[in-house]
């Protein structure tokens, strides 16, 4: 069944309206981005700006740890942003970046259209437009608009996979095997590509894979569908993450370095899983009922306040709907409901598995943003499982959607007024930069100024959230010390002004002395003014 079937006048109007939404929604989202201000989040300053620059200019291995531990993250998604924002006026780059993120709305629309097959074409198009628009206006999703966290970019792979599966569900269930398996493998390819570009997206790849086991098909058919989706995931992972995993494996003996180093035991990191446990619930009970906690106290799942109750609504409605469906001996929505049974089974099971993995592995709300995007459609599906009259279910779904949308409060990870250029830094003249090594110290996000430095000056961070000069059990320290010891030219130290005293202590552990009297400021448009200070070897060195 095509997305916009030809037919009577209502069908033609629906088709025109659908195409208009597909084409205009991303542009409207790009325009909305401009109203939110220019992204200046901590991660942009710490590694998203630097990592894209480093991959493009061959600085990987030339510099050491400028972006702290995220220096080891796959920079593939950072490259297009750096190219846009470095070469275009900031507002133009912001509009284009926001428009790319706005493709999520187009995919949400296609997904909803494929799931609403029980609705006449014009009503289906209007409902799908409403659900897609709401999907792009959640508290977390709006907080990410125009930013570089990429959770609303890897979502394109997740949503694209869902569109491919949902649109082909009739044939996937009982059609010819080869086309069905090829279709789900293509969906897996998109989900795997998202996972390859950002590893936490693994929860969606697994959730979408296991969702096939809930489909109303023969057991072996379900297993084969999950298998071929998994094959696609591996292909996508290799396509978008393979080059980086190979680099980490060859250089450090761990393809996801430094994470899971308690398994791979690379000598260049501590024997640790490197899991951020800062957002984990304090008790098992809090973890079980976590949506009640983080909806009221959002700082338990993120660095900034926001409000969006749609995940909580799903947390309540999905099990209630599933239980009532089981009790009434019906595992699918009533025949008169808006969404079809197979699509409902697949999406709700996939989201349930995804959430369970999220609460077990991460508990960082940004990673749950694709679920937030899908929540309006999933809420309609969950309401369809309730043993209520059709009008009551429609009224309940509409009322909940309106209430959830009216109560959202977007997150804000840090923005500034739009400037001519996205990143600027006023670096003072540096004598003989080709023979000078820049050291970095402190724990603040300052790597965004590196592209403004002379291009042939190596950068070595001697103090970071991955490594300190007195670290024990981290073999990377030997690499760092050897690089510093082998340098025969001048040294400079870069840090924030408050971190300068700590930078001097870190330098002393390497036999270096920071000259406080020589410090010069480096103003920049995204963060606080930095200090650039001369460093020299001590007499004993």
Question: Which features characterize this protein?
Answer:
541 residues; alpha/beta; five-stranded mixed sheet; two-stranded antiparallel ribbon; 7 strands
In short:
The chain is α/β, with parallel strands linked by helices. The protein has helices spanning 9-36, 42-57, 78-87, 90-115, 121-135, 139-144, 151-167, 169-174, 177-197, 202-211, 219-252, 261-264, 284-288, 290-296, 310-327, 341-361, 369-384, 390-406, 476-486, 500-508, and strands at residues 38-39, 415-416, 436-440, 459-461, 490-496, 512-522, 530-537. The radius of gyration is 26 Å and the shape is elongated.
What does this molecule look like?
By secondary structure, the protein is an alpha/beta fold. The protein is built from 20 helices and seven strands. Strands 4-3-5-7-6 form a five-stranded mixed beta sheet, with helices on one face. Strand 6 (512-522) and strand 7 (530-537) form a beta hairpin. Helix 17 (369-384) packs antiparallel against helix 18 (390-406). It is elongated and about 85 Å long. The termini are far apart. The model has no long low-confidence stretch (mean pLDDT 95).
**Global shape:** elongated
Average pLDDT score: 95
Number of helices: 20
Order of helices and strands: HEHHHHHHHHHHHHHHHHHEEEHEHEE
Biggest sheet layout: 5 strands, mixed
**What Rg, in angstroms, do the CA atoms define?**
26 Å
* β-strand amount: 5-15%
Structural class: alpha/beta
> Share of helix among residues?
40-55%
What's the count of strands?
7
Which stretches are low in confidence, meaning pLDDT under 50 for 5 or more residues running?
none
Order of the strands making up the biggest sheet: 4-3-5-7-6
Terminal CA distance: 75 Å
């Amino acid at each position: 069944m095509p997305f916009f079937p030809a037919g009577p006048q209502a069908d033609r109007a629906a088709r025109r309206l659908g195409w208009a939404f597909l084409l205009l929604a991303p542009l409207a989202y790009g325009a909305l981005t401009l109203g939110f201000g220019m992204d200046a989040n901590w991660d942009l300053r710490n590694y998203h700006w630097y990592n894209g620059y480093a991959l493009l200019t061959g600085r990987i291995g030339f510099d050491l740890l400028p972006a702290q531990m995220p220096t080891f993250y796959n920079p593939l998604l950072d490259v297009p942003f750096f190219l846009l924002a470095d070469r275009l006026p900031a507002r133009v780059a912001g509009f284009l970046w926001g428009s790319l993120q706005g493709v999520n709305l187009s995919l949400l629309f296609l997904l909803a259209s494929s799931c609403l097959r029980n609705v006449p074409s014009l009503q289906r198009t209007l409902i799908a437009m409403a659900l897609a628009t709401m999907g792009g206006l959640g508290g977390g999703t709006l907080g990410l608009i125009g930013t570089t966290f990429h959770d609303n970019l890897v979502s394109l792979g997740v949503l694209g996979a869902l569109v491919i599966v949902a649109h082909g569900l009739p044939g996937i269930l009982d059609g010819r095997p080869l086309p069905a398996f090829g279709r789900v493998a293509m969906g897996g390819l998109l989900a795997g590509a998202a996972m390859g570009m950002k590893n936490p997206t693994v929860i969606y790849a697994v959730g979408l894979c296991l969702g096939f086991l809930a489909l109303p098909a023969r057991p072996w058919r379900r297993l084969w569908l999950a298998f071929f989706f998994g094959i696609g995931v591996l292909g996508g992972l290799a396509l978008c993450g393979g080059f980086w995993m190979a680099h980490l494996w060859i250089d450090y003996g761990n393809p996801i370095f430094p994470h899971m180093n308690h398994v791979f035991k690379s000598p260049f990191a501590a024997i640790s899983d490197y899991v951020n446990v800062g957002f984990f619930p304090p008790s098992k009970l809090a973890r079980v009922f976590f949506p009640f906690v983080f909806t009221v106290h959002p700082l338990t799942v993120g660095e900034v306040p926001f409000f969006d109750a749609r995940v909580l609504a799903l947390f309540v409605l999905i099990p209630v709907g599933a239980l009532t469906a089981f009790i009434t001996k019906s595992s699918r929505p009533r025949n008169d409901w808006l969404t079809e049974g197979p699509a409902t089974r697949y999406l709700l099971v996939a989201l349930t598995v995804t959430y369970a993995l999220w609460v077990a592995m991460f508990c960082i709300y940004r990673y749950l943003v694709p679920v937030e995007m899908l929540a309006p459609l999933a809420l309609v599906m969950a309401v369809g499982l309730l043993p209520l009259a059709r009008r009551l279910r429609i009224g309940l779904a509409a009322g909940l959607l309106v209430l959830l949308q009216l109560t959202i409060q977007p997150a804000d990870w840090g923005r500034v007024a739009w400037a001519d250029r996205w990143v600027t830094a006023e670096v003072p003249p540096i004598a003989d930069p080709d023979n000078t090594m820049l050291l970095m110290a402190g724990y603040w996000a300052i790597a965004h100024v590196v592209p403004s430095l002379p291009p042939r000056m190596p950068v070595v961070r001697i103090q970071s959230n991955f490594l300190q000069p007195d670290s024990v059990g981290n073999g990377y320290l030997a690499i760092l010390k050897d690089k510093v010891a082998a340098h025969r030219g001048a040294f400079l130290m870069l840090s924030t002004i408050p971190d300068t005293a700590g930078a001097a202590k870190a330098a002393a552990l390497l036999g270096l002395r920071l000259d406080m009297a020589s410090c010069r400021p480096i103003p920049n448009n995204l963060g606080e003014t930095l200090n650039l200070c001369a460093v020299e070897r001590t007499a004993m060195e």
